[in-house]
User: Fold UTRA domain-containing protein from Paracoccus shanxieyensis.
Amino acid sequence: MTERSSSKAQAITSEVRRRIADREWRQGDRIPDEAELAVEFGVARATVNKALQLLAEEGLLDRKRRAGTHVTLNPAHKATLTIPIVREQIEQAGMEYSHRVIAQKLSPLPADASTRMALPEAALLIHLRTVHYGDGKPFQVEDRWINPQAAPGAEAIDFQRINANEWLVRNFPWLRADMAFSAENANARDARLLETRQGTALLILQRTTFNDLGAITSARLAFHPGYQMFATS
Amino acid sequence: MTERSSSKAQAITSEVRRRIADREWRQGDRIPDEAELAVEFGVARATVNKALQLLAEEGLLDRKRRAGTHVTLNPAHKATLTIPIVREQIEQAGMEYSHRVIAQKLSPLPADASTRMALPEAALLIHLRTVHYGDGKPFQVEDRWINPQAAPGAEAIDFQRINANEWLVRNFPWLRADMAFSAENANARDARLLETRQGTALLILQRTTFNDLGAITSARLAFHPGYQMFATS
Assistant:
């Protein structure tokens, strides 16, 4: 697509959004077909197609080859979540970043991490525990397993020099990430490292990334009490 | 785009992903330009453009008009999160859905909800408290404010008959949703309604949706202990 057809497509998406918001086109309604819209907007059919496809990907329209395009009955249920790099996140909040590696050693993979990473239980992986600080205050406690098969060279890295999150992101692009959000009462270790009381509710993010060699890393991130993670759609 | 050029674009995205995963193209590398790739893959330039655009949206490529297309230094930091309709979520888990409205009345909007909804404090909105059950067990406690200005007719609805989540989604498509995840220790009311102990860590989702008339609704959703929300990228 050229720049020009792309901005035309944008004008069409805006107008379609407006018609849906203004309920000129109501949920479940079949909208005019591509050819009609191309005439109405004075653009190529491919441009209309591009605009409608974008709205379909957002979940606002429902496109079926034979049945035509309808305004979705259950609109957009998808949201985009930015996966932060912890150093950037802390610096963007105007704080100075630092981190401390509590432990870094080869250890046998426990059952739960083995399931998440699709690797054999008791396989020897790098086990890393790190605390990330903003202005010296604990921000996040990270418990991470790294698979040297998918991240060759990891055995030789001193993660006190460069934090594992950044080293991995810089060197091993991932193709897929699985994430799960949950809440846990701080256990004794969480409480000590986050300088809070045992039992305090913590937001937990389990994140496992994969490349074509398998699981790269799986981390349990426990955020400081009161932390909020934002998403928009 | 036709069906055929779309599947060609898909073949190109797969090949580009493979080259990045195999480190034939490394992070920061400039990749061949559209015209060269069009020749290599034997497709139209627009098809290459479409494929690269998709990978750029995913964050794997970084496209700049003059500098060309590079493999992103910090790859994909975005994940897609499906926003579940609570009834569907419970039914998809194989449980029978039911809900109970604890309170439904016009009340003055408190300060925190006023900020989230960008509405004046003390404006009269519909305040609703609901518990959603799966097989009779508490699944989610919902504390919701509904703005009748953006959702006309809401005043007349009995939300015990149809739950507010579904009624709103069916009747008022939203254009934007703001979400925040956090963890809270169950307060006395959460604990009673979720049939758990006070202090138990709960995953909290604050969600506010907007249409062109303003904020439609803002809800605090407290999930049962142990609940996990999944996202993939």
Notes: Chain B touches chain A through 61 residues (CB under 8 Å). Chain B has two domains: 3-71, 86-223. Residues 3-71 of chain B form a domain with the Arc Repressor Mutant, subunit A fold (CATH 1.10.10.10). The helical segments of chain B are 3-21, 34-41, 45-58, 86-92, 111-117, 164-171, 188-193.
